[in-house]
Design a protein that fits this description.
The chain has 1 helix and 11 strands. With 172 residues, the chain is mostly beta strands. The strands form 3 sheets. Strands 4-6-9-8 form a 4-stranded antiparallel β-sheet, with no helix packed on it. A 4-stranded mixed β-sheet has the order 5-11-10-7, with no helix packed on it. The radius of gyration is 34 Å and the shape is rod-shaped. The protein starts with 10 loop residues before the first strand and ends in a 15-residue tail after the last helix.
Length: 172
C-alpha cells in the first residue's frame, strides 16, 4: 500500500489471529493488526476482540422428578462456538420450598416437602433464554400385600399341636 500524499512511503499491514483459532469457521475470539511506515519505521497497532454471542439455547432432560430426587437439565447453545457458551444462568420458578434448588450446571434438586406440582427451569445466556417445565411427583410406596399364610404356619401361630417345636417368623 502506498500513502497517497507521498508516493515513496509504503505502509505494511499485518493481521494476526491467535494460534488456536479456527479461521475456517471464523471462530477467532480476538485479532490484532499493526501498520508500519517503512520509510519512517513508525508502527501503529490495535487489538480487536471478536465476539460471537449465543443466538439460541435448547433445554433437554427428564420432564418429571419425584420429591426428594434430582434431575439434570442439559443446555445446548447455538452456535456451538459462541464466545459466551459457558455463561449460562439457571433459575427456577413455581417452587414453594427453599430446599428446591438448581445448581450452576443445571442440576435441579426437589425438596422432600415440595408442594408445587410443576417447576419451571429457565436458562439464560446473554440475551436469549429458554424454559422447560418439570412435573413434580410424589414418590410411590409399594403396596403391602396380605398374603395368606400356609396351614402349618397358621397352626403354629395359633398354638396348635400339629408342629409343637416350630417357630414361625413372619417375613413381611
Amino acid at each position: 500500500l502506498k500513502d497517497s500524499s507521498k508516493s515513496s512511503n509504503k505502509l505494511t499491514i499485518t493481521i494476526t489471529t491467535p494460534p488456536n483459532s479456527d479461521t475456517s469457521t471464523k471462530a477467532a475470539t480476538s485479532s490484532s493488526f499493526s501498520l508500519r511506515n517503512e520509510n519512517t519505521n513508525q508502527t501503529s497497532s490495535a487489538n480487536n476482540s471478536l465476539t460471537k454471542p449465543a443466538t439460541g439455547i435448547k433445554l433437554s432432560g427428564a420432564t418429571s422428578v419425584e420429591k426428594g430426587d434430582s434431575v439434570q437439565i442439559k443446555a445446548t447453545v447455538t452456535p456451538t462456538n459462541a464466545s459466551n457458551k459457558d455463561d449460562i444462568k439457571w433459575t427456577i420458578s413455581g417452587n414453594n420450598k427453599s430446599g428446591t434448588t438448581i445448581s450452576s450446571d443445571g442440576l435441579l434438586t426437589v425438596a422432600d416437602n415440595e408442594t408445587a406440582k410443576t417447576i419451571t427451569v429457565k436458562a439464560t445466556i446473554g440475551k436469549v433464554s429458554n424454559t422447560i417445565k418439570i412435573t413434580v411427583k410424589t414418590p410411590t410406596v409399594p403396596e403391602r400385600t396380605n398374603r395368606e399364610l400356609p396351614n402349618e404356619a397358621k397352626d403354629a401361630i395359633s398354638g396348635g399341636s400339629r408342629y409343637p417345636n416350630k417357630t414361625v417368623v413372619r417375613a413381611d
